[in-house]
């Protein structure tokens, strides 16, 4: 190989190395700018969400709704999805858990805000945001908190579309019992675990207990529908009886195990 050819090859190799270093440098700079842009967009979204929460606390529901809807749209843009197509699979559950919690909470605030607005359009909005709340809460590490939030909301007599919220509670694994679902908004939170434990660890272990469970499951849908139609004060009275049964079942279970 002549000196001239070797020199030409060295120059080509040097240009290639220089080009590779320049590309790597440009890629690093673009990555840094992209990360900074994402942080800035996140900061803007958080500011808008905070403004919405502040408006909600001061009962400025129109302003709160506008802020929350703007926040959701900005999240949709950041995830490159069409409106109303946001889903938890777009988020990294480890790196983006705080924003996952925030999105879920905002869907909840939108669902209960639209719950109070009377019109067909607002009812559709309420249904969509409640559905999104369930989608983001189901399977999340904070699911139980969301389930308890639903139960407390129902117990405060504020829900207009009570059937929708009850269904959402059931979808989050609150309970599969028809009667318990009907009275979840007026019964004690300790009652259901007590009755479920008594059923699973005592009744299921005897022939008569299994017979009782089958009869209960057969009649409970009819009873639940009747309970839903009763006045609220009557439902509270029935719930107090259910609470007492739950307390007695726990005591009875302890006696039988002793």
Structure, explained:
- This protein is an all-alpha fold.
- The protein has helices spanning about 5-55, 60-80, 95-115, 120-135, 145-155, 160-170, 180-185, 190-200, 205-230, 230-255.
- It is about 75% helix and about 0% strand.
- It contains ten helices and no strands.
- It has two domains: about 40-175, Serine Threonine Protein Phosphatase 5, Tetratricopeptide repeat; about 190-258, no CATH class.
Mean pLDDT rating: 81
Order of helices and strands: HHHHHHHHHH
Structural class: mainly alpha
Number of strands: 0
For the biggest sheet, the summary is:
none
Number of domains: 2
Task: Give the amount of beta strand, in percent.
Answer: under 5%
Please write the CATH class name of the largest domain. Mainly Alpha
Dominant shape? elongated
Radius of gyration in whole Å, from Cα? 28 Å
Give the % helix: over 70%
Intertermini distance: 97 Å
Weakly predicted, low-confidence segments: none
CATH topology of the largest domain: Serine Threonine Protein Phosphatase 5, Tetratricopeptide repeat
Please count the helical segments: 10
Write the CATH architecture name of the largest domain.
Alpha Horseshoe
What would a concise description of this structure say?
This protein has 258 residues and is an all-alpha fold. Helix content is 77%, strand content 0%.
């Amino acid at each position: 190989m002549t000196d001239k050819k070797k020199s030409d090859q060295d120059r080509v190799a040097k240009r290639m190395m220089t080009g590779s270093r320049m590309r790597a440098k440009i890629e690093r700079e673009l990555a840094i700018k992209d990360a900074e842009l994402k942080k800035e967009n996140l900061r803007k979204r958080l500011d808008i969400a905070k403004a919405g929460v502040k408006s909600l606390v001061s009962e400025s529901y129109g302003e709160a709704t506008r802020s929350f809807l703007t926040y959701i749209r900005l999240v949709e843009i950041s995830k490159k999805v069409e409106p109303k197509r946001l889903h938890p699979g777009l988020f990294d559950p480890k790196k983006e858990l705080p924003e996952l919690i925030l999105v879920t909470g905002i869907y909840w605030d939108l669902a209960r805000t639209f719950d109070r607005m009377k019109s067909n359009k607002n009812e559709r909005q309420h249904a969509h945001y409640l559905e999104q709340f369930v989608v983001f809460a189901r399977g999340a590490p904070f699911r139980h908190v969301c389930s308890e939030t639903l139960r407390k909301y129902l117990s405060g007599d504020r829900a207009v579309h009570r059937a929708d919220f009850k269904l959402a509670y059931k979808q989050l694994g609150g309970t599969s019992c028809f009667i318990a679902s009907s009275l979840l908004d007026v019964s004690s939170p300790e009652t259901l675990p007590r009755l479920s434990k008594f059923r699973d660890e005592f009744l299921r272990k005897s022939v008569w207990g299994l017979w009782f469970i089958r009869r209960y499951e057969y009649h409970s849908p009819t009873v639940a529908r009747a309970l839903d139609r009763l006045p609220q004060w009557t439902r509270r009275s029935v719930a107090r009886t259910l609470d007492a049964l739950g307390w007695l079942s726990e005591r009875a279970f302890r006696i039988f195990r002793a």
